[in-house]
Amino acid sequence: MMRNIKRNSIYIAVGLSAITSFMSSCTKDYEDPSRARTEVALGSSQALSAVAMGVNRTYTLSRTGVLFNSVTASGFASNEFKLLNAGNIPELQLSTGGTAVDGTNTILFNMWASSLKVIDESNKVIAGAEALGDKGYASGLIGYVTVFKALSLGTLSTFWEKVPVTTGKAVPFVDRMDGYKAAITAIDNALAKIAATPISAQFNSTVNNINIANALQALKARYALFSGQYALALTAANAVTTPTVIPANKTAITPADISPFKFDAANANAIASVVISNNVFQPLDANLGLPASLAPDPNDKRIPFYTMMAGSPASIRMAGFATSVTTSFPIFLPGEITLIKAEAYARQTTPDVVNGLIELNKVVTKTSDVFGVKAELAPVVGALTPAQLLEQIYKHRCIELYASGLKLEDMRRFGRPVSERKRSFMPYPFQERDNNPNTPANPAF
Description:
The protein is mainly α. It has one domain (about 10-35, about 45-275, about 325-425): Serine Threonine Protein Phosphatase 5, Tetratricopeptide repeat. Helices cover about 45% and strands about 5% of the residues. It has 17 helices and eight strands. The protein has helices spanning about 10-15, 45-60, 65-75, 90-95, 105-130, 135-160, 175-195, 200-205, 210-225, 230-240, 270-275, 300-305, 335-345, 355-365, 385-400, 405-415, 430-435; strands at about 80-85, 160-165, 175, 260, 280-285, 305-310, 315-320, 330. The model is unreliable at about 1-35 (pLDDT under 50).
């Protein structure tokens, strides 16, 4: 594979057209396409809004985006997915695992480059918004792009041992735990801006398609948990509003209720597009890749939510948030927030097994959910030890949050056997290594 990339293109000028992801082995020449300069004319709310919406697209849309590639990489590495066509070389590498995954992998490069592009352009929007006279519009812009900046920092920290938290030439790398903490710092800044000046109605009518403050608190809870800050995770989780049913006066979820990424025919759900093609990946099995000792209860309603039998002959297919190209994809699920509380209680210095089990059983027994993710099982009972409770929390995170891109982090955090996954951390893209002398050595596995 050719490794010809102009310096700094990873950080600033990688556009969606430049990091086209072909799911086959091919020669790629990652040239700087750019000349679409986001630095120009960012002194107006209109220009900043346009860049902010571009940040959304870079994160969510197409097979070059952060969302698709993080779900795909985690799905293969954590045994959620099976490969359908060995001609899809990047997926074949991840499905094989171990040393088969290297710096040529375009799924990893697309995820890396798109994450850094989101962070870089979010920083520009935040800097520009600070100078706006309309502070209500500014707080909306800052909060909006911080959702995507935090998600991208979190994504890098999930897949790589060391990560850059700034963009530019020859940037330093920090420990991935500091990457999660950088996401929290960005979230706290955005929440402070919103608290000082609430987001204006004009911003909400112009840009907003998510519940910004709610999403920020949910991501703060997630990354506090991932970085071992359990008291902070519990506090942030308790600040999240998580409706369990669609309001009686509405026919669908709206941004006021919860925060999904939305798609339409022109801006398709890329995960669904791949699943519907039935040529790249599908669920590994009806157990969602869990070992026999943690297999889901056959009566668990989340299994028919996330999987279905289709085709001739019938085979297992992904359902859930991949049923159509217009299906919304959640930034977070209500069940995730409840399970964060359960885990935070269980991991306290003095584990609170009682409250941890109460929170776990809210998910296990759930009969309604805005997205339809409900288990409808009998509660977990018994005098569980902290270790036993954590094992149950892991099991139900794997089921509740299937194909969310979060399982690889969970496997490491819960100390699952290495034999259950294909890799623990990913190698750095060659394009990064060629252009940044600070790039760390690749992990052995």
